[in-house]
Amino acid sequence: MNQVRVERRLAESGACLRCSCSQETILHALRDCPHSREVLMSVGSNLEWSSLVMDCYHWLKGIILNKDAIKISITLWWVWRFRNNMIFNDERWMISEVCQNVVLSTVENSLYNVKRRLWEEKALWRPLEHPWVKLNTDGS
Question: Residue 129: exposed, middle, or buried by beta-carbon count in 10 A (0-12, 13-18, 19+)?
């Protein structure tokens, strides 16, 4: 965030370069900037708008505990990338492009989870039949 970059003498101003807010904090970059908020609202992130006044800790905790935590996390990652491309690469994506990337990433994540069947436990080790004994070590 520009506020941190100013403190480290990496930027001249702590203002948000996207909306000209006087301080770009982590919450501003991900949640409060009008560009970020438009993406969050456009993809239908299941965030209560009352959470927009929460501090960073409680806001992130609310996301982790949300039933749509994966979709919200993917959305925030694209919001972050959207912000960085505007600031560091001077590339201006349209909100619709960011939303499309969120949808594609969400689908890819779902397909990956189905393919890997992460919810199924696979027993890879079975004890040997009597009289054999097996000792597993970590190799140290």
Answer: exposed
